[in-house]
Amino acid sequence: MDKIRRPSHAGSWYTDNPKKLEEELEGWLGATGLTKSPDVRGVIAPHAGYSYSGRAAAYAFGNIDPTNITRVFLLGPSHHYYTPKCALSTATVYKTPIGDLPIDLEVIEELKATGKFELMDLQVDEAEHSMEMHLPYLVKIFEGHPVKVVPILVGALNTDNEAMYGRLLAKYVDDPTNFFSVSSDFCHWGSRFHYTHYDKKCGPIHKSIEALDKMGMDIIETGNADAFKQYLSEYDNTICGRHPISVFLHMSSNCSTKIKIKFLRYEQSSQCKTMRDSSVSYASAAAKVDA
């Protein structure tokens, strides 16, 4: 008997009309002009409502060549549920308005057996949007290619645990049939986010935010998890997927495959000009096998 995770954010964060959703995704993917590459083994993509970040996300998902991929690991931050660990889904199917993605129960069991993961109940799973916002894109990209997902909710991990989960998951990177979808928005700026870092040397506020995000993106591209940690502790940039990104950096430095991350798109929900303004940044990256 299937245990279904409903697309709880369809109809609010993105359209629940299948035809309209297909058209939107096709439009955004087409507009990127990207060539699909079998060397792309992972993406970092935003998870805001599609009216804000749908277009930016296409610059991550548009790189994926689905031909040889049979499994997608989803790493998303936890927004509502506190855990110092990573949690696994207890669902067997993730539904979307345009198709369903079965959960890879075999890998879930394998991860469970390590004793390092907790389980999230369906309520926690459905309340969280960070992985759900990647699902319609995955359904679209993998149309006609059978693929299973391994959803991992990444909690408020300390540095040691980020490294531990990275080492534990690294072996999956070496299997070219596995793919990794890492969910993160970038700077959440404004008093409503309790974050108003502003370096006047950069010019207007939105340029200061961009400089701060770009600094973080450059560090992520080096693949150095410690340097990313250092950057976060220095600037406290409100990157909500900092833990999933850190785990992914540890994964790529602990596997035998050489992985290179490159950012392809950066956008802001609005351009902040005064201290009363607010915005969220969106950045999309592809992680490629570096020959």
Automatic annotation (TrEMBL):
Alphabetical list of CDD domains matching this protein:
MEMO_like (cd07361)
- HAMAP family on file: MEMO1
What name has this protein been given in UniProt?
A: MEMO1 family protein
The UniProt family comment states: Belongs to the MEMO1 family.
Supply the source organism's classification. Answer: Eukaryota, Viridiplantae, Streptophyta, Embryophyta, Tracheophyta
A Pfam family this chain is assigned to = Memo
Organism of origin: Populus trichocarpa
Question: Which InterPro entries does the annotation name?
Answer: MEMO1_fam
